[in-house]
Amino acid sequence: MFQLKLTFELENPFLPKETDRLMVSYMKAAVSESQEFYESLYDKKKSILKGFCFSYSLPQAMFRDDKIYLAQNSFALYFSDENLAETIRFLKAFQKMQGKKYPMNGNSMTLVKIQMLTLQKIKDSRIIIRMQSPLLVRKHNSTDNSDVYYTWEQEAFSQVLKENVELFLQRRGIALSTEGFSVRVIKGKKVVVPVFGRNTDANLGFYELTGSPELLNVLYLAGLGVRRSEGHGKWELIG
């Protein structure tokens, strides 16, 4: 098991506040050389629920107005995918982007380094995790196409998160049971994050996950909750 660490250099030490838009755009550009791969991920008629997630390491980030100011002209992105073959395809796509300046509004970023970092395989059925990117827990109402996002202090939080996991497994065609899966809040923190222009309730902090090691390892690579492929739901193993 491994994840990718992508190191970017910035022309100027800031990122747009809605970094999710930027990175989704970058991911699309990276895979666009293969029409089949691009469509499998981003064509709504062909794509399935995505199996990857990512988080950022932003040095001494300061959020002001519509920008995120950094202490240096670089930042890192950590990327993982539950499907090994898909991970390799992303790796090759990122390698083709390496050294190329990618423009953004009033700035640019260049991928300068790619590393493969080994992840410890989970062998226990009960683990402690820390969210590295905001966790979005969503209940979708198909009747009126509305969404409700839950935070850790709400009673339905754990159940809705389990439903999100079940939908993910179903849509990805992963034959794993969620029997015994649960989440317990150790130290939750509510945050409000911009999700494609809309301020949305999300969660950071520490949580206890219970479930089969096979399921936990899939979630370790794919992330938790919804909108994982837009920079949400990635976590690290604490114990």
Q: Could you characterize what this model shows?
A:
By secondary structure, this protein is of the alpha+beta class. It contains 5 helices and 14 strands. It has helices at 19-31, 35-42, 84-97, 157-172, 213-222; strands at residues 2-10, 14-16, 52-57, 62-64, 67-69, 74-81, 101-104, 107-118, 126-131, 137-141, 146-150, 182-195, 198-210, 235-237. The strands form 4 sheets. The protein has a 5-stranded antiparallel β-sheet with strand order 3-6-1-8-7. It is globular. The model has no long low-confidence stretch (mean pLDDT 94).
Assembly state: single chain
Task: Tell me the distance between the termini.
Answer: 17 Å
The beta-strand count equals 14
Q: Shape, please?
A: globular
Give a brief description:
This protein has 239 residues and is α+β, with helices and mostly antiparallel strands. The chain is built from 5 helices and 14 strands.
Key traits:
single chain, 239 residues, alpha+beta, 5-stranded antiparallel sheet, 4-stranded antiparallel sheet, 5 helices, 14 strands
Helix and strand topology:
Elements: E1 2-10, E2 14-16, H1 19-31, H2 35-42, E3 52-57, E4 62-64, E5 67-69, E6 74-81, H3 84-97, E7 101-104, E8 107-118, E9 126-131, E10 137-141, E11 146-150, H4 157-172, E12 182-195, E13 198-210, H5 213-222, E14 235-237
Antiparallel strand pairs: 1-6, 1-8, 2-5, 3-6, 4-5, 7-8, 9-13, 9-14, 10-11, 12-13
